Amino acid sequence: MKAESQITEAELEVMKILWEYGKATSSQIVERLTETTEWKPKTIQTLITRLVNKGAVGAEKINNKSFVYYPIVSEEQYKSYANKSFLQKLYNGSVSLMLASFVKEQKLSRKDLEFLKQLLDEEE
Prior knowledge:
Elements: H1 9-21, E1 24-25, H2 26-36, H3 41-54, E2 57-61, E3 67-71, H4 75-91, H5 95-105, H6 110-123
Antiparallel strand pairs: 1-3, 2-3
Helix pairs in contact: 2-3
């Protein structure tokens, strides 16, 4: 099983920081996540460790006790997996069913509709 298929919602928050920074120490990750969540530093460190163990994040030792972490799974790889998984789970893999649902239920603006039309025209 690929690393991106095993990333939990909480771990995804760590990944977002690493995708933004490229590389970050655990202190930097903890600092960012304690601003936006109520997670304790130990919880955040556990998430980082899990991601390393899953192969989604790499760790490089920078001194005797510190590491810098970097994403192995790219944001694009994860989004591709998540899109396929979402499509399969909710719409049996049917893009047309998904688009119909979004168009009918999300009250798309004229600008959004025009953008979708343009994308479809370009694909033909």
